[in-house]
Amino acid sequence: MTQTSLFCLVFATTRVVAALQTEQDGSTSHKTLRNGVVMPTIAAGTGGYDNQNQQGKVLRNGLVMPTMSAGTWQYDDGEAEASVQAALTSGFRHIDTAYDYGNQAGVSKGLAAGAAAAKLARKDIFITTKVPGCGINGVDPKDCEGSTLSYLQKDYALLNSSYDLQGHVDLVLLHFPPCLVGKDGMALCNANKKISCTECDAIKAQWSAAVKAYEKGLFSAIGVSNYCTQCLQCLKDFKTQPMVNQFQLHVGMGDQGFLAMNAARGIVSQAYSPIGSGGHGSSDILSGPLTTKIAKAHNKSTAQVALKYLVQLNAAVVTKSSSPEHLKQDVELFDWSLTRRDMKELAAATFAADDTPSFECDNPSSATAMA
Ligand SMILES: NC(=O)c1ccc[n+]([C@@H]2O[C@H](COP(=O)([O-])OP(=O)(O)OC[C@H]3O[C@@H](n4cnc5c(N)ncnc54)[C@H](OP(=O)(O)O)[C@@H]3O)[C@@H](O)[C@H]2O)c1
User: Fold this and answer.
1) Which atom number of ligand 1 is nearest to the Cα of residue 83?
2) Is position 105 within any domain?
3) Which H/E stretch holds residue 38?
4) Quick check: is 178 in a domain?
């Protein structure tokens, strides 16, 4: 399939059109929320999310993104299929994946099976996928635009292999800032986090390619991941700004400035690895004294406390699980609250202070977070 034919495949759904019109003609009045998020008065495209007891985040173009998302990182095809199916039947309405997770065919099977089992139409499911930064995982830095579009094309073909995407994904994120050093620059950029965000030209080029695809209706919302202040600054002159920034955040890290950085720009924060990713921080989160004490007080699990903490910080959250029981717990977050004292104690925990929001660029200092 050529890029042109891919775009021809796209049916601009009512909600996409509504969302684009909202942004382009400015006809909808907006309210600025206390956290700085700009919310159109009329929300486009709520789909079926609102009857699932899952509060949504209203993106700057009016699209509603379900707050809780089920991820698929590190699963093989079979695990991804089972997890996505279980997530949809457990109450998740938002699935998070990425081309470079290498399991899109399994995700597609899981979407088909889960949608059938839970009787969900395409509009009831919010799908996020991600394209690697230019220079990473084979995205050609010399043809950032063409390569970004061809990755999206391959991604769509795989996601569409067992499930009818109906021509669009809901949200596309640029997975990392471009990394132009070395053959496949990822390792080098990881080793020297300062590199990628000095690559303003590449950041602008990839964003520009993604915006063009968004404007053609290939996806309904557009965002970034692992972008720190310097990277976002590179995009400041674009009319279409990122709607979401997905970054690492969990109990024990402190917020490290990313929540304020995004809120100041009207970007919805989405926390990944909210349970510590099964590694650093996970044991403290799942069985440490602080979360255990708070979980007991609310008759909830420690994982629920960790997820609820992020929800109360006003972040969207992407977790993952291979267990249907865990998945059920992970969306049961909206009929109870942590106290102010719980929130204060969880925010003060430092057991995972070495974990950083972006593994590819430096954290903003508190002075630059709002710049
Ligand atoms: N943008 C990026 O660069 C980026 C980076 C990392 C991750 N992500 C996204 O974020 C998603 C989540 O992050 P993550 O995969 O690092 O992991 P995570 O959500 O921090 O942790 C997942 C682990 O938590 C366990 N878990 C989940 N719910 C639980 C519950 N209720 N009780 C006990 N244990 C529970 C799961 O084990 P069981 O299977 O045993 O339940 C799983 O091993 C990824 O899958 C991916 O979609 C994005």
Assistant:
1) 39
2) yes
3) strand 38-40
4) yes
Q: How far apart are CA 300 and CA 60, in angstroms?
A: 33
CB 260 within 8 A of CB 370: yes
Pocket test for ligand 1, best of 277, 282, 302, 307 (most atoms within 8 A of CB): 277
**180 neighbors 133 (Cβ within 8 angstroms):** no
Q: How many domains does the chain contain in total? A: 1
Q: What are phi and psi of 210, to 5 degrees?
A: -65, -40
Q: Domain of 181: which CATH number?
A: 3.20.20.100
| Ligand 1 centroid to residue 25 C-alpha, Å | 39
* Catalytic residue from among 99, 101, 163, 309: 101
In 3-state terms, what secondary structure has residue 146?
Answer: helix
**Ligand 1 pocket at CB < 6 A:** 71-73, 96, 175, 225-226, 246, 272-278, 286, 301, 303, 318-323, 326, 329-330
Distance (Å, rounded) from C-alpha 316 to C-alpha 337?
16
Tokens of 324: 């249907």
- Neighbour tally for 162: CB within 10 Å: 16
Cα 89 to averaged position of ligand 1 atoms, centre (Å)? 18
Report yes or no on 371 lying in a domain: no
In a domain, 28, yes or no: yes
Domain that holds residue 11: 3-366
In angstroms, rounded to a whole number, what is the distance separating the alpha carbons of residues 164 and 242? 27
Q: pLDDT truncated to tens, each residue of the chain (371 aa)?
A: 444 444 333 333 333 333 333 333 222 333 333 333 333 333 333 334 443 446 899 999 999 999 999 999 999 999 999 999 999 999 999 999 999 999 999 999 999 999 999 999 999 999 999 999 888 877 887 888 898 999 999 999 999 999 999 999 999 999 988 877 655 555 566 666 666 666 788 899 999 999 999 999 999 999 999 999 988 999 999 999 999 999 999 999 987 899 999 999 999 999 999 999 877 679 999 999 999 999 999 999 999 999 999 999 999 999 999 999 999 999 999 999 999 999 999 999 999 998 889 877 766 554 444 44
Residue matched to tokens 């996505």: 84
**Catalytic annotation on 309?**
no
